[in-house]
Design goal:
Length: 196
C-alpha cells in the first residue's frame, strides 16, 4: 500500500480486499477460462485513486452510458448524506499488485456500497465495464462473470446486516439471482438481501 503526504494530509492508495475469479477469453478461441482478479477498495481521498476513477468513468462513458460517472462524482464531491455512516468504493481489477497505483485500463467493475444509519448496507451503484457487460449487446466480450464476482464479494462481506438496492428495471433479475427479494416491511418497493 502506498503512502502519500500532502502538507498535513496523509493518503493511502487502493487497498487489496480479496481475490476472486472471473472468466477470460482464451486467445484465438471463443472459449473462456478461469482467471484470478482482485477486489480493492478505492480511497477517495487519494489523488491517484481519484484520477484512476476519473479515467475509468471517462472511458466507460464514451463506450456506453454508465454509472461510473456517478461513482466518481460520489467519491470526489463532499456530499453529506445524513443517513450514511461510511462509503465503500470497490473495484474489480485484473491488476495483480501495486494497488496504490490503480491502473484504469485493468478495472473491470466498480461499486459503491454505503453503510447506513438504518443498520443496513445499500448498493448505490454497481457497474461492469461496458464492453464486458452481459446485459447489453456484447457477445464477443473479453471477460465474463465480473458482476457475479462483485456480487459474491458484496453479499459475503456485508451479510451481517440487510443489503438493499433500488435497481434499474433491467437489473432486477440480476439481483434476484443473488437472493434479493421485495419485502413488505421497511424496505417496501426496494430489493433486500438477508442471510437466513
Amino acid at each position: 500500500m502506498g503512502l502519500y503526504s500532502s502538507m498535513n494530509s496523509i493518503f493511502f492508495g487502493a487497498s487489496f480486499l480479496s481475490n476472486t475469479h472471473i472468466q477470460a477469453k482464451k486467445k484465438f478461441r471463443n472459449k473462456y477460462e478461469q482467471k484470478t482478479a482482485n477486489i480493492v477498495e478505492i480511497d477517495p481521498k487519494n489523488p491517484d485513486d481519484k484520477e484512476a476513477l476519473h479515467e475509468v468513468s471517462k472511458k466507460w462513458d464514451k463506450q456506453y452510458i454508465s454509472f461510473a460517472w456517478n461513482i466518481y462524482n460520489d467519491a470526489v464531491e463532499d456530499f453529506d448524506y445524513p443517513d450514511v455512516k461510511a462509503e465503500h468504493f470497490l473495484a474489480l481489477t485484473t491488476q495483480k499488485n501495486n494497488f496504490d497505483k490503480l491502473n484504469p485500463d485493468k478495472v473491470l467493475g466498480l461499486a459503491l456500497v454505503s453503510e447506513r444509519a438504518y443498520d443496513d448496507f445499500e448498493i448505490n451503484w454497481l457497474q461492469v465495464e461496458p464492453n464486458n457487460n452481459s446485459v447489453d449487446f456484447h457477445k464477443n466480450r473479453q471477460y465474463k462473470q465480473v458482476g457475479r464476482a462483485m456480487m459474491n464479494y458484496i453479499c459475503k462481506t456485508y451479510s451481517d446486516k440487510p443489503i438493499v438496492v433500488n435497481p434499474a428495471n433491467t437489473a432486477v433479475e440480476f439481483y434476484k439471482k443473488y437472493g434479493f427479494t421485495y419485502e413488505d416491511d421497511i424496505y417496501r418497493g426496494i430489493l433486500c438481501y438477508r442471510v437466513s
